Amino acid sequence: MSVVEQHSVEFTPRISEASVADYIALLKPRVMSLVVFTALVGLVIAPVPLHPVLAITSILSIAVGGGAAGALNMWYEGDIDALMSRTANRPIPRGRVTRPEAAAFGVTLAFFSVMTLGILVNWVAGALLAFTIFFYVVIYTMWLKRWTAQNIVIGGAAGALPPVVAWAAATGSLAPQPILLFLIIFLWTPPHFWALALFRTDDYARAKVPMLPNVAGPDATRLQILLYTIVLVTVAIAPWPLGYFDAIYGVTSVVLGAIMLWLAIDVYRHRLGKEANRATRALFKFSILYLFLLFAVLLLEVVVPATVRLIW
């Protein structure tokens, strides 16, 4: 083989094996669905009606921004994702997408989502979306996750911001209602993820991620789950007596809060064997339903009356 032929072989561009499904996986669709849903609630409960085109633009921008943060998270965490059974099948560990491809994809989506929201809706919302992406990628992914057991506590702020961004898209400002939604998601995040971490300790130990059960131990984690759940339930009920949300929400928050608190107590009580595993899995699964139903009630409180008025 001649020198020219060798040179051409060495520098032949790699043909990407990635499919559309691989790039969709980079967006973390399940996380994105939560982002879209909570943002939709923040948009709907805002007191200022937003033109349907601008409303759709806002939700799509927030969704794409959330997906961009997910792609950049996978770009940076490709090394630890390969070590964890929960994440080993993601596109980068499988070799379907390279880390530079994921980085370029994430940066492009982040740029266009922020610019679209800022230019077409308002720059308060655009700036909040940019901060959300920055916080998740830089503060949480690059710094907190690998260095402190409080990674989920502080990093949870990024996942709690979508309803605030959506409210800002509708109003151009902030108010107590979106701040309360932020606090609910923020306080929900630690018990939700620490329940997962309790039965994924081997994964996190293998990847050397300092999750609370691996650093402080399972018993300390169970206590923290209980304490955070008590504060979460209290804060989630508070908007009702404060007059921000209606009685339907109030009753729902009390009932769901009682179940959530009981499951957290169950996790605290059962510390060994199958019962401990059952309790943590039950709390993890119900915590998803808890957040969904709380926000669904807020959505229905606005949508149902509006639909009735439209029909009549």
What does this structure look like?
This protein has 15 helices and no strands. It has 312 residues and is mainly alpha-helical. The protein is flat and about 55 Å long. Helix 9 runs antiparallel to helix 10 and helix 10 packs antiparallel against helix 13.
Oligomerization category of the chains in this entry: single chain
Which percent range fits the helix content? over 70%
Give the helix/strand class: mainly alpha
Give the integer mean of the pLDDT values: 92
CATH structural architecture of the largest domain? Orthogonal Bundle
Q: Might you state the CATH topology name of the largest domain?
A: Tetracycline Repressor, domain 2
Q: What's the end-to-end separation, in Å?
A: 81 Å
Q: How many domains is the backbone divided into?
A: 2
Q: Radius of gyration from the CA trace?
A: 22 Å
* Percent of residues in beta strands: under 5%
| General shape | flat
Number of strands: 0
The named CATH superfamily of the largest domain:
UbiA prenyltransferase
The total of helices stands at 15
